[in-house]
Amino acid sequence: MNKTLLYLERKLAAGLLRLIAKSYRFEVQNYYPVEQRCIFMFWHRNLMLLMVHRMDQQNAVLISSSNDGELIAGPARELGYITIRGSSTRGGTKALREMIEISKQHSIGITPDGPKGPLKSIHPGVYQVAYQVKIPIVQIAANTKSEWLFNSWDKFRFPKPFARIKVVYGEPIYVCTKEDLIDIENRLLAAMNALEEKVVFE
Fold first, then answer.
1. Would you give the end-to-end CA distance of the chain in angstroms?
2. Rounded distance between C-alpha atoms, residue 181 and residue 128, angstroms
């Protein structure tokens, strides 16, 4: 993709996101402090809702290395994120090693079902990093009723201006020992399902 067009895209997209974000009404429960490192785990379709929620905090985020991923990675960097390009499905790859290294100093956001699904699945990268670095996994659920839905595999969400956005943080889940790895995918999935019930609008 043309470098000039990418530059313009990231500047314009980030500026627009900052402007729109000022109109959002966030309702946040159990907020996780900036100064405490962790792995934030959330579903891929909620990436945009949470990107504007925690911008300018020097968190890292894993984004697909595809051309489509660059359209998200550029604006993310403008919003204060450290971007890691790759896939959470490729254990032992450069992306996984980079996640481990960066998470020693920064919190990192991972969408365990990204970049291509299956929807709401848990790929190993999220708990492999937690095990190696000995930092907790903090799950995040988010919801809004005012949104645009993309025609993608996960119905990617973009909150409309003035949207009311519910965000709920789960309790830290530690993966420090081999015993903690037993049935970890099912435990993470069950915890996330319970968390999502807390962001349902009445």
1. 44
2. 9
Please check the confidence at residue 90 and state whether its pLDDT lies above 50: no
Spell out the SS3 assignment of the chain. CCHHHHHHHHHHHHHHHHHHHCCCEEEEECCCCCCCCCEEECCHHHHHHHHHHCCCCCCEEEECCCHHHHHHHHHHHHCCCEEEECCCCCCCCHHHHHHHHHCCCCCEEECCCCCCCCCCCCCCHHHHHHHHHCCCEEEEEEEECCEEECCCCCCCEEECCCCEEEEEECCCECCCCCHHHCCHHHHHHHHHHHHHHHHCCC
Among 88-92, 118-122, 135-139, whose mean pLDDT is lowest? 88-92
Contacts of 158 (CB under 8 A, 6+ apart): 48, 147, 148, 149, 150
User: What pLDDT digit, counting tens, does each position of 61-88 carry?
Assistant: 988 887 778 888 999 999 999 999 876 5
Residue 156 confidence class, pLDDT cut points 50, 70, 90: very high
Our CA angle for 85, 86, 87, nearest 5°, is 145
Res 85: pLDDT: 86
